[in-house]
Design brief:
With 59 residues, the chain is α+β, with helices and mostly antiparallel strands. 22% of the residues lie in helices and 32% in strands.
Length: 59
């Protein structure tokens, strides 16, 4: 099993710590808190991720 490659927004400041990280995996998108990389991970289906992004873009 390969380890996911985590990405943070380019708008994220280096000093903040108030960011989430996202990793694309086969069939899922994983989301975690950048302050707690070893903490819980939210796994979303591709359809669920698309719905989340569409919702977030409206607000």
């Amino acid at each position: 099993m390969t380890r996911p490659i985590w990405f943070k927004s380019s708008h994220s400041s280096g000093s903040g710590g108030e960011c989430v990280e996202v990793a694309a995996c086969p069939g899922t998108v994983r989301v975690r808190d950048s302050k707690d990389a070893a903490g819980p991970v939210l796994s979303l289906s591709l359809k669920g991720w698309a719905a989340f992004v569409m919702f977030a873009a409206r607000y």
